[in-house]
Design goal:
By secondary structure, the protein is mainly α. The chain contains three helices and no strands. Keywords: Signal.
Amino acid sequence: MKSLIKAVALAAIIFVPVASFAQSNGEVTRAQVRAELVQLEKAGYNPATSNPDDYPQNIQAAEAKVAAQNGDASGYGSVAKGSHQAGHRVAADPTSPRSIYFGN
């Protein structure tokens, strides 16, 4: 009997920290869900008139618009916009009197 109690206590000690890490960051409230739906509707998504065939594309496009409006909140920075070239290619002189293999 004592070994069973020890085994249960040991299992509880091991399981409790694992379960605490598996929890989410917090519950989403109804107000948060409604605010997200309002943002999606302002971005052009209308769940009442959406076609079931176009559902994934419609919601993903609206979510992309909302994400672009809100900015990236991941803490790692956003996607770089534009481009920059540090240098440029130098064209070979076509009027060179010697071949590039001269002397080899």
